[in-house]
Amino acid sequence: MADALCRLEAMLLIRAHEEKLVEFQRGGAPGTCTSVGQEACAVGVVGALESRDRILDAAGLVQLRE
Predict the structure, then answer these.
(1) What are the b/e assignments for 33-47, b being 16+ CB within 10 Å?
(2) Which of 50, 33, 53, 43 is nearest to 5 (CA)?
(3) Mind listing the pLDDT tens digit for each residue in 5-42?
(4) What is residue 38's DSSP assignment?
(5) Predicted structure pTM score
(6) Which of 31, 66, 30 is nearest to 51 (CA)?
(7) Do residues 12 and 36 touch, judged by C-beta distance below 8 A?
(8) At what angle do helices 2-26 and 39-48 cross, to 10 degrees?
(9) Phi and psi at residue 65, in whole multiples of 5°?
């Protein structure tokens, strides 16, 4: 149950961040691509990663902590 609550908290945090980005866009800030509604995908993928896994994002290689 604690794991499920942690994942829900992560999804809610992502959603809040994404909604803030949309708010900034509506205020005239440069656009960015959001993923509102796809929070569970990100949380699920990251939750399945193991310490030996590596991910590559726009900023470069991210090493997961063990």
Answers:
(1) ebeeeebeeebeeee
(2) 43
(3) 999 999 999 999 999 988 988 888 887 778 888 999 99
(4) -
(5) 0.72
(6) 66
(7) no
(8) 140
(9) -80, 150
